[in-house]
Fold each of these.
Amino acid sequence: MSAQRPGPSTAPSADPALAPVAPVLAAVREQAPLVHCLTATVSMAIVADGLLAAGARPMMTETAAEAPVVTTLADALSINLGTLSTDAMDGIPATVEVAVRDGRPWVLDPTAIGIAPVRTPLARQLVESRPTVVRGNASELLALAGTGPGGRGADSTDTADAAADAAAQVARRTGGAVAVSGAVDLVLDARRQARVDRGSELLPRVTGTGCLLGALTAACTAVHPDPFEAALAATVWLDLAGEAAAARATGPGSFRMHLLDALDAVGR
Amino acid sequence: MSAQRPGPSTAPSADPALAPVAPVLAAVREQAPLVHCLTATVSMAIVADGLLAAGARPMMTETAAEAPVVTTLADALSINLGTLSTDAMDGIPATVEVAVRDGRPWVLDPTAIGIAPVRTPLARQLVESRPTVVRGNASELLALAGTGPGGRGADSTDTADAAADAAAQVARRTGGAVAVSGAVDLVLDARRQARVDRGSELLPRVTGTGCLLGALTAACTAVHPDPFEAALAATVWLDLAGEAAAARATGPGSFRMHLLDALDAVGR
Amino acid sequence: MSAQRPGPSTAPSADPALAPVAPVLAAVREQAPLVHCLTATVSMAIVADGLLAAGARPMMTETAAEAPVVTTLADALSINLGTLSTDAMDGIPATVEVAVRDGRPWVLDPTAIGIAPVRTPLARQLVESRPTVVRGNASELLALAGTGPGGRGADSTDTADAAADAAAQVARRTGGAVAVSGAVDLVLDARRQARVDRGSELLPRVTGTGCLLGALTAACTAVHPDPFEAALAATVWLDLAGEAAAARATGPGSFRMHLLDALDAVGR
C-alpha cells in the first residue's frame, strides 16, 4: 500500500490518499473523542489546538494524584515522553495502567529516547503494556527496539525505512500498530505495511507536530477499532494538512497557523 | 441587562455592548496592570499573549518558594486550576493568602473540577477565601456549588443559564461576582445579572480562551473596583474580539491569531 | 559601534546592520546547532519555534534526572530562569556544570530576578560559572550586579544605557559578553560595546521574545567563537526580524507569526 502525491490539478477533496481514511476523519469530527494527553510541555498548546482543530477534545492533567482518575473519562490516552517533567514521570505509569484496565486505546510516543536515562527504560517498560499504537521517528523506533542509539533531541538521524525492521519487531511485541514518521512515513502492523510519501518539509520546522501526530492518532483509535487503519488515517490527515498549509505559508510561523486551519478543513 | 449582537452595518467602535464597559478597557490600557497568573501549563502562552494584547502585563511564577513573594508586586492575581502541576498545587494556597492579606483582587477559575480528586476540594476551599470573581463554565459552576458532577475535561455539558442558581449561590458565599461562560455568557453578583449573547463558536475551538478570560477578568478587577462590572467588561471584551477574529479567520488557527490582534484593537 | 535604522528604500538584504553579522546567521543555518534550553514554561513554544525558524534545533529536557545527561549531546546551552519550576530549579545547576566541564558555550538569562527569593541568588551563583553570554533587560542586569532592585515581572523599568555600568561589571566577572535588551539594545564585553537601535515596539508585546533572544544567542555561540559577535548577531537577527514582522502585522498576534517567518527569511 502506498500513497503518492497527486498531480497539482487534483482537488483536495478528491485526493486519492484521502478516500480510504475519510471515514475515520468523519468519525472523529462526529464523535469528538476526549483524548487525555500527557505530553511534552513545549508542545502542549499545539497538541491541544490540533486536536480541537481536528474535532477532538484534549484533556491534559499529568500528576499521579489526578491523571489516573480523570483518564477514566477519556476515550483514548496519548503518552508522549517529550520534556518528561517529574509530574509526568510519576503520573504516566499509573495512568497507563488505568487505560489498560479499562480497555481504552492508547498511544505511546517515545520522544527523544536514546541516552536519556529515565525515559529510555520507561518507554521500553511501557511497550510491555502493549500500546494500541507506537508512534515515533526512526531513531526513536531503533532505540526502542534496542537496535540504535537514538537521535539528538527530537530529531531523527535515520529514515523511516531504515527503522522498518525495528518497527515490525515492536509491533510483534505489542500486537498493535507502529507509525514511523519521516520524509516518507511508514505505518505497519503484524500483517500490513503502508508507506505515505506525503506531507511537507515545513512539518519538522514547527515544534510539536510529531507530538500532535501522536495525539491525533489517539483520537483516531478512539473512533476506529483497527489500530493500523487509525494510525494510517492520522498520518495521512496530518500530511495532507501539512501540504495544504505549505501551499499558503510564507515561512514556519504562518505554516503553523495554516496547519491548524487545514486540520479542520481537510476532506470536508 | 442584556447584550445582543448588533446588525452588520454597525461599526465596531459604535457597538452598543461596548459603551458601558469601554472605561474599563481604557483603564487596563492606560494602567497596564501586572497580573500574576497561576494557570494551566497548556494555556500559559495564550494567557500571557492575550494579557499583553489587551495592554496588561503577565507574570507567571507558580512555585511555593517564589509565587507568594512575587505576588506582592502584582496588581491582581488569577488562579486557574487547569493542568494543576505539583508546583501549582503547592503554590496556590499560599499565594492566594498573600493576595487576600494585601487586599488585592483575585479571580478563581475552577477549571475541570468534578471528579478530579485534588482540584475539586481545592476549588471549594478557595471559595472560602472569597475570590473577587469566580469564572468558569456551567459544569464547573455546578460542581463548585456541589449541585453537579462537573464536565469532561475543560468542556461544559451544561448551558450557562442552567448554572444560574449555582452561580448565584457561589456569589452569595464570596460576596463578589461570578461569570459563567457559554454560548450565552452570564455575569452576576448578589444584586445584578447580565446575559451576554455575543462571541464566536470558534472561541472554544482554541485552547485556553477560557483561561484567558479569567486572566483578563483579573486585569479588569485591577483597574475597576466593581467586580461585577470588571467581569462583565472582560467577558464583552473577549466576545467582541472573538467576533472580529471570526470575521477574518479561515479556521481555528487563524482565529487564534486574529483574536490576539482583536484584543488589542477592540474599541480603539 | 552603532546600528541605525536604514531609510525605507533600503532592501532588507542590503541592510547595513546585517553585513557584519551575516556570517553568523549563515553558520547557524548551515550547522543547525542543537540548543538545549531550560526556559520559562510560558515561552517554551516560541523559543523552540524561533530556534527552528532560525535553522537551529531545540531540546528542552529540564529535570535533574535527565538534563545533565542529554546536555552532552548539545552544541550550546540556554538557561532562562523564567517561570523556574521545581524541575528547572533542581536541573539547572547540574546541567550548567556539565556544559562548563565539556567546554560548551552557554547563555544565562536572569529573567525576573529582583525580589524573587530563589532565582535571584541562583542567578548570581550561576554568574560565577562564567556564562559565555548573559542576556537580560536593564532591570535584570542591575539586579544581577547588585545595584538595582529588579523589575516587575519580566518588565524592565530601566533603559539599557542605564544598565551599562552594571553590564560591564558582569562582563568583567564572566570574561564573556553581556547583552542588555531594550528599546535600544546594548551588547558589550571587556573591550567592545555596540548599541543597536533597531527592532520593533511589538517585540515586548509578545510573550517570550526575550527568552527567544537568549536561546538564539546560544545558537550563535555554538557556531561562532567570539561571544560578543555571537550576541550581537542574535540581537540584530531578532531586531531585523521584528522590523520585517511589524511591517506586515496588524497587531501582536499576527506580529508573532510574522516574526517566526522573518527569522527564517532575514538576510537570505
Amino acid sequence: MAATAAVLPSLSPSSSAASQTAVFLPPNQRFLQSLRQTSLGGLSVSTPGGSKRRSTTPLRALIAPDGGELVELVVPEVDRPSKQAEASSLPYIPLTPIDVEWVHVVSEGWASPLRGFMRQTEYLQALHFNSLRLADGSVVNMSVPIVLAIDDLQKEAIATSSSIALRAPSGELIAILRNIEIYKHNKEERIARTWGTTAPGLPYVEEALTSSGNWLVGGDLEVLQPIKYYDGLDQYRLSPAQLRKIFEEKQADAVFAFQLRNPVHNGHALLMTDTRKRLLEMGYKNPILLLHPLGGYTKADDVPLQWRMKQHEKVLEEGVLDPESTVVAIFPSPMHYAGPTEVQWHAKARINAGADFYIVGRDPAGMGHPTQKRDLYDPDHGKLVLSMAPGLERLNILPFKVAAYDKSQGKMAFFDPSRAEDFLFISGTKMRNFAKLGEKPPAGFMCPEGWQVLVDYYQSLSTNNNGSLTTQQPKAVASV
Amino acid sequence: MAATAAVLPSLSPSSSAASQTAVFLPPNQRFLQSLRQTSLGGLSVSTPGGSKRRSTTPLRALIAPDGGELVELVVPEVDRPSKQAEASSLPYIPLTPIDVEWVHVVSEGWASPLRGFMRQTEYLQALHFNSLRLADGSVVNMSVPIVLAIDDLQKEAIATSSSIALRAPSGELIAILRNIEIYKHNKEERIARTWGTTAPGLPYVEEALTSSGNWLVGGDLEVLQPIKYYDGLDQYRLSPAQLRKIFEEKQADAVFAFQLRNPVHNGHALLMTDTRKRLLEMGYKNPILLLHPLGGYTKADDVPLQWRMKQHEKVLEEGVLDPESTVVAIFPSPMHYAGPTEVQWHAKARINAGADFYIVGRDPAGMGHPTQKRDLYDPDHGKLVLSMAPGLERLNILPFKVAAYDKSQGKMAFFDPSRAEDFLFISGTKMRNFAKLGEKPPAGFMCPEGWQVLVDYYQSLSTNNNGSLTTQQPKAVASV
C-alpha cells in the first residue's frame, strides 16, 4: 500500500477527528441524520454560514469549476422585489416541468460557465463538438444542448423584446432571460446528433421534443429565487456551491462521484467501497463519495425518485456504505438517455460540484434501442468517449469493475472470469421482475430493507393503477 | 491600403519576377499549359526534383500540417518488390472505388496525422467531437469518419492476421493495412451523427454505407504505389507535398483555398479575385489561389469531374482568373454532402496542402433534404461551425460574399441590398436547367466557352442515355 505521493501536490490533511466532525446538514437532512444514527464516530452539525474550521493546515483545493468560477444566477434577495416587478412587466414564456429543471440546473452552475439557455453558437458547438471554446481559448465540455423551445406564436409575442420572463407551469414567475436570441429548432438534426438515432420512442424526445416549438430562444438567466419542488426532497437538492462547502468542511482531498438513476444494490456498494480503498492506496487521506442520484425527468419504467431516495436511505441506514465518507444529494438534471453523449454531461456537472473522480459503468445513460432488439449504444462506448472527451481532461475517470452475484460466497463480488460459473448476473430487468413478483433476490444482493422498498413500490403500482406506469418527474415545480 | 505588417512575421518576399517564374508543372499539365498560353508574363518550368530557387531571401513558411509533419504512406520504390510479395501472401479485403479514394486521400497526408483507416478511438472522436486529441494533448480537426467496412465473412477471414492486404476493384494489390483492429459498424449511429439525419436518400450513404458490412477495420496503411486513375486527369491530382512545393516555389506568403464541386461562374471568379485583393490589402505580397475541385465520388446530378475540369480550363483560358496566382488541382476526396460536418474536413485537408485561408460559401457541402422540401442544413451553419471548429483555429476562414447577376451592370457583382431589385439570383438548379434546355444565361454570368462545356455535357447526356444520370466517379481505379 505504498502511497503514490506524486499525484497529491501539497496535501497536508488535518487529523481524522477533524475530518469527521465538520459537516453541513441542511434542515431535515434525513440521510445525514440516518448517517448520524448509524455512525460509529459522532457527527457534529454546522450550518453553511458557520464555518468553524478545525484546522488551519492548508487543504488541497477542490477541482476548479469549468471556466474558473462557479456560475450562480439566483438574484440576491435584496434585488428580488425590483426584479420580480420587472419580470411581471415583460412578455413571458410558459415553461414545461423539464424546462424548469434546466433553469434549476443552470441557475446553480452545474453547467458552468453556461449562464442561461444556449444561443446558437453554443448550441452548435454542443451538437457538433460536445464542447464550448471560451473567450480565452480554453475548452469546456458541454455535450447536451440546454435549450428553450418556443413556438411560432410565442416567437412573435417576444420578438421585439430583448428580455423576457419565464413562468413555471403553476404560472409563477421564476426567471428573466436577457439579451435573447431566437434561432431555428431543427429537431431532426438535434435528435440525430444528440442520440445517434432518430428512431421513434426515445423517452426525452417524446416527452420534451416532439411537441416542442420550431424555435429556440437563448439568453442570460436571472432566476428570481432558488428553485424548489416541495416534494419532501428539497433538502437533498444541494447546489454545487453547497456541495463544495461540505467537501471543504469535511477536508476532502479527493471527491469521487457516483451517478445513478437506479436502486443501489450491493454490487454498487462494493464498487464504491472499493473505489475509496483504491484512492486511499493512491495516497489520498480522505476521499469522499458523492452518491448522486439523478432527480429530474426519468422514463416511465425507471423507479421514481421518491422510492429511490427511500431505498438509498435504507442502504445507508443498514451501513452498506460508510456514512462518514459519503455525501448523498440529488442531481437536478433531467435524463436524456443519450449514452456516450450524456455521460459527458453527467461527469462535467460533477466537476462543477467539486468532484475530481468519476465512476463510469457499463453502458452509462444507455437503454434498449426503441425499435430494435439491441442496446441503443455499444456498452463500452460510454467510458471510451468519456475518457477522450474535450474539456474533461482534468477529471479522473474510474471505469466500473464488473460486479455480479458470487454464488460460492453468497454475496456480490467482482467478477472473476477464471471461475465464471460461480457468478450470476442480475440485470436491472431481472431485479425489477423479482420485485414486481414479490420474489426475493439471492441473499446478499441487496440489503433487506432496501429491497423491501422496491417491493413496496411495485406493489403500490399494482394496487394504485393496475401496474401501468407514468412518466416519473417531480410534480410540483414552484418557488416560494 | 495600409499594410498590416503585424500579421506577417518575417515576410521578405522576393521580386515579383521570381514569384512568376518558379512553378512545378507535372507532365501534360493542361491547366498550366493553358495558363502559359494566356499568361501575360512568361512561365518557366521546373520539375519537382529540380528546385532551382531564384532567391535565398527567407520565406514565410507555409502553415504546418496537422500534427506537425505531413503523413506520406506510399512505400519507397526500393521497398516495393518486397512489400508487394508480402502483400500477396496476406489475406485481403477487396475495396470499393470509394474505399480506394480514401486510401488515396490518407496515403498523401490530406488527413494528417491520420496514418490509415480509423481504429475505434479515432472513429469515436471523429463522430462525437469532430476532432482527435494527439499524444501531446494538442487537437486536430477530423470531422468525417475515414473507415473501412467489412462483412462477417471478411471479418472471419482476417480475424487471426495482424496485417491484411487491400485490393482495388480491378483485383490489383494496392496496400497493406497493419496492426488491424476490428470493431462494430453501427451504421445508424454513424449516419445520424455524421449527417444529422437518418432519412433515406443521402447519396454517400446509399452509395457507400447501406450495403456495407457490419464491421470496421482500422490500421496503419502502407500503400504500394501512388494511386492513379488513368482517366486523363491524373496530372491534376497533386498531393499535399506537391502543392506545398509549388507554393514554396511560387514564394506564396498566403494560400487561399476554394473548394468546389460545381462549374465556375463569374460570381465565383469575382469572389476569388476579390479575396486576393483583400489579402493584398492586408499586406500579403503574393497570395496564391488554390482552385481545388473535388475529384472523388459525387452524386448523380452533379456535373462529372471530366466536364467540370474542361469547364475550369476554359475559365482559365479566357482569363477570368489570374493564371499567375492560381494553382488548379484535384482534391481526391469523395463527397459526403454532410454540410457543417463535412466542410470541416474540406478545410482541414487544405491546411495539410499548405492553405492558411479558406473561402467558405453559403450552405457548404449542403443539398436538399432527401425527403422534405427544405435544405438539409441551415445555410449559415457551415460557416458558423467552421469558424468554431476544434483544430481549425490556425486557419483563416473567409466567408463568401453573396454574388448575383447585376442587371444594371450586365455582370456578376456582390449583392447590394440597397438595390436588391437590380439583382438576379441564378441557383445551381436554374443554371443546370438553362444548360439542359440549351438556353443562354444572361451575358456575363459565365465565360462563353465555359458555358458551352456545360451545354455540351447536358447534350451528351440526352444523346447517350436519354438523360438519365448515373453516379459520377472516376471509373478506372488502378495503379501502375
